[in-house]
Amino acid sequence: MTRRLDKSVFIAVAAFGATLALAPASPASAAWEPTRPVEFIIPAGTGGGADIMARTIQGIVSKHNLMKQPVLPINKSGGAGGEGFLDVKGSAGNPHKIIITLSNLFTTPLATGIPFNWKDLTPVAMLALDEFVLWVNAEKPYKTVKEYIDAAKAANGTFKMAGTGSKQEDQIITEAIQKSTGVKFIYIPEKGGGAVAVQLVGGHVDSTVNNPNEAVSHWRGGKLRPLCVFDGKPMPYKDPIAEGKSWADIPVCKSQGLNMEYLMLRGIFTTPGATKDQVDFYIDLFKKVRATPEWQDLMKNGAFNQSFMTGDEYVKWVAAAEKEHHELMKAAGFLAK
Amino acid sequence: MEEIGNLFHGFSIVLQPYNILLMVIGIVLGVIIGVLPGLGGANGVAILLPLTFSMSPTSAIIMLSCIYWGALFGGAITSVLFNIPGEPWSVATTFDGHPMAQQGKAGEALTAAFTSSFVGAFFAIVVITLVAPLVANFALRFGPAEKFGVYFLAFCSFVGMSKEPPMKTVAAMMIGFALAAVGLDEMTGQLRLTFGFTHLLTGFDFLIAVIGLFGIGEILLTMEEGLHFKGRAAVINPRIVLQTWKELPKYWITSLRSSVIGCWMGITPAGATPASFMSYGIAKRLSKNGRNFGKGEIEGVVAPETAAHAAGTSALLPMLSLGVPGSPTAAVLLGGLLIWGLQPGPMLFVENKEFIWGLIASMYLGNVVGLIIVLTCVPIFAAILRIPFPIIAPIILVFCAIGAYSVNNSSFDVMMMMVFGVLGYLLKKCNYPLAPLVLAIVLGDKAEEAFRQSLLASQGSLAIFWSNGLVSTIMALGLIALFWPLISEAWNRVRSLATAA
């Protein structure tokens, strides 16, 4: 059983290597490997999207014996994740440390002015992109974005949007919606995505932009209704979730008159000064992780956008995303003075 | 009656020898984790989570929830013996538990604490079994205003109970609020009171403050007073458990009241910490022995422990039915559920009946097993106090340092712990009460967050705190609790006037 699995992993990895023009040659012969446990920093609290992904990776690595040393997830969520980023920045020369990112990679330094930039770290790979969906309470009458925006306009600035944190991705999207439609929302920051969804289920706010896996259980339970997804194309997952609808049936926001696209990076970085061998080892490791059925389940449950990038392609993507965040936050007046 | 049938099916799953073995292992690990301050239930569960990936979800959740129960039990041990609360909800247990240990009654205090934990948890499990779906919907009614109401009630029922001058209580509480404000302001995303010093980004963790203020401060005081524990003369009597049990039924009203407070706070989901403080404050008001609270009154151990455990247990309900964890440990368990492919939420109760009822059955049995294990160890725990102070004090210091370090893996925190230790010593010497300070550190930022969220939603109008029946009732209860001394005084005068006339 194990052998067959190894083989399928190998085939999957080989297939991946072939499709990626920029992939480093022959990852199997990476010269470096960890000699002690690898700390996996999570710049967010327990139970959130990044935390679940990191802990799933830990489980996959130990279950499939992908590495001789264990992975140890450590939450460093203080200061909107600033604590975690500064910790990795300050660990130059220690390759036994990696960090998973969310948009606070950009938003936290921009909003607080802490001495950190993603260029301080060594990029490893993009694991996936997290989608954002506009949700409303299922008991409310609006079934489309237009009906909802009309209702919000009629309410004259009293509609409430809840989101995770302040001056972070959820509030950036809210700002963009306001700009695109001219509607004014009251933005209410909560600590985590789970709490945000529950505030909407309880009817304390009017809408949210939760990630799919934060709200899917309430959708299945008939409490929430998705209106649109902030992506360029519909999500690919066709399994029905609730009322015969699947993730693929949710229209993209652009087609509904909400001119906004936003995806959140779930990527991996390691400490400053890591060598090519070390980065290659981690790239190879994550390719193996991505080939496991557990990872596929996670992707499907959370309706992730499964983009995978390494090397220059990844660096370019991150640099462009940073620029975009800078512009969005500047327009919203969120930059630290 | 369908629930009862499901429950018995759950018992049949849990009673397999393999699952019982996991249960015992989980409890023992949990107690060890609970005893080490700072390691705490959340970290313990997080570290041990990968161990369970190879098990079936039901076996895995049995083991993990037993670690959780074990940690809840274990937290009381260090609070009573060394005045070091390992978890936020054990703080109120130290108020009377530690004085009892100093009087040589550590065995009684521990027995009362463990038994009360069991009673509180058991009450909560019965509530979960009977009214799970109803109760879960109740939690949905709690928006920011209602949450603030609950914190307000917790503060109010605790304020004014201090024997120190009111101004000193207020001063201590304000220091606590100031410390709670350091770090990132969640409402605006701006840093506050960090003065450009990146170590302060995270603010002051409750555990660092409490290990320093209580644990280190206590050691410094003991050193000054002659290098030995006051409780060392404790008579170690194996029958102490039975003797204490004879006394406990006297406090059934306190137990019942605390269980109800605990369940309510656990479900809402304000959590175990405000529950324990609130329960202690109310018990002090209403008890005949209220004046002796803080000097080693057994009822002062019963009240917070019962409430904390009723809350800790019922906090699992919002986690399972709404996906919102009521405690950090519940948050890690939530991560575990997702890894096993179980999606918490309203559908979990419909689609994964075997898992849910296996879990509920394991709560019943896990608590019984846990109680038996910790009670048989009471004499051993109490005997720790007979170890000479010069030997045990360095060991405690090392454990405190490890605990402080492991909260954020930061050696800066160990230094902060020592600073808090000196601060705790000085405050005690000047007769400033530590409890209000700690209460403000623990609940200060949460109360602030809820308050500001409410005002954002209402666009600045305070009327939101009186906008519906639920929040008005909570706020009114809070005001009554705050002015209770005046109200009872007035009532007594009216009555004496009436009898005179």
Layout of SSEs?
The complex is a heterodimer of chains A (337) and B (501).
Chain A lengths: L1 H18 L18 E5 L6 H15 L7 E5 L6 H8 L7 E4 L3 H9 L9 E9 L2 E5 L7 H10 L5 E5 L4 H13 L4 E5 L2 H9 L5 E2 L3 H9 L3 E6 L10 E3 L2 E2 L17 E7 L5 H15 L2 H9 L7 E2 H22 L5
Parallel strand pairs in A: 1-2, 1-3, 6-7, 6-8
Antiparallel strand pairs in A: 3-12, 4-12, 4-13, 5-8, 5-9, 10-11
Chain B lengths: L1 H13 L2 H19 L4 H9 L8 H26 L8 H12 L3 H35 L3 H15 L7 H16 L1 E3 L4 E3 L13 H19 L15 H8 L4 H16 L4 H15 L12 H16 L1 H7 L5 H12 L8 H4 L1 H24 L1 H6 L5 H20 L2 H19 L5 H24 L10 H14 L1 H17 L1
Antiparallel strand pairs in B: 1-2
Helix pairs in contact in B: 1-17, 2-4, 2-17, 3-4, 3-15, 4-5, 4-6, 4-15, 4-17, 5-6, 5-13, 6-10, 6-11, 6-13, 6-14, 6-17, 7-12, 7-21, 7-22, 8-21, 9-19, 9-20, 11-12, 11-13, 12-13, 19-20
Relevant terms:
heterodimer, A: 337 residues, alpha/beta, D-Maltodextrin-Binding Protein, domain 2, 6-stranded mixed β-sheet, 5-stranded mixed β-sheet, 13 strands, globular, disordered N terminus, B: 501 residues, mainly alpha, two-stranded antiparallel ribbon, 1% strand
Short description:
Chain A is α/β, with parallel strands linked by helices. Chain A is built from 11 helices and 13 strands.
User: What is the CATH architecture descriptor of the largest domain in chain A?
Assistant: 3-Layer(aba) Sandwich
Low-confidence stretches of chain A: 1-30
- Given as residue ranges, the uncertain stretches of chain B (5+ residues, pLDDT < 50) are none
Helix content of chain A: 40-55%
Query: Could you tell me the mean pLDDT of chain A?
Result: 88
Total domain modules of chain A: 2
Strand order of the largest sheet of chain B: 1-2
Largest sheet of chain A: 6 strands, mixed
Using the alpha-carbon principal axes, give the shape of chain B.
globular
Content-based structural category of chain B: mainly alpha
Give me the count of strands of chain B.
2
CATH superfamily of the largest domain in chain A: Bordetella uptake gene, domain 1
Q: How many strands of chain A? A: 13
